[in-house]
Amino acid sequence: MHYPFPSLKILTTLLLSLILTLEAPGVFARPDDANPNFQVKTLAPTSRQDSLDRTIANLLSQHHYRQSPLDDALSSLVLNAYLDSLDFSRSYFLASDIARFEPYRTTLDDAVKEGDLHPAYDIFNTYLRRLTERTARIQSLLKQEFRFDVDESLNLDRKDAPWARTSEELDDLWRKRLKHEMLTLILSGKDQAEARELLSKRYDNRLRQALQSTSDDVFQWYMNAVAQAFDPHTAYFSPRNTENFNIQMRLSLEGIGCVLRMEDEQVTVVELVTGGPADLSQQIRPTDKIVAVAQGDEDPWVDVVGWRLDDVVEKIRGPRGTVVRLKILPGKAGATAAEKSVRLVRDTIKLEKQAAKSEIKTFKDSGGRELRVGVITVPAFYSDFEAARRGVKDYRSTTRDVRRLLKELQGRIDGLVLDLRENGGGSLQEAVDLTGLFIDEGPVVQVRNSGGRVEVEEDKDEGQVYNGPLAVLVDHASASASEIFAGAIQDYGRGIVIGDPTFGKGTVQTLVDLSRLTRTREPQGQLKITIAKFYRVSGGSTQHRGVLPDIAIPSILDSDDLGESAQKNALPWDEIPATRYEGERRLATLAPELARRHQRRVADDPDYQAFLHDLEFTRQQRDKTTVSLLEKQRRAEQERLEAWQRERENRYRTLKKLPLLKPGDEIPEGKDSLIPDVALEESARIVADLILLDSPNQGSSTLVMSR
Question: Of 124, 163, 200, 581, which one's alpha carbon is 20 to 30 angstroms from that of 451?
Answer without folding.
Answer: 581
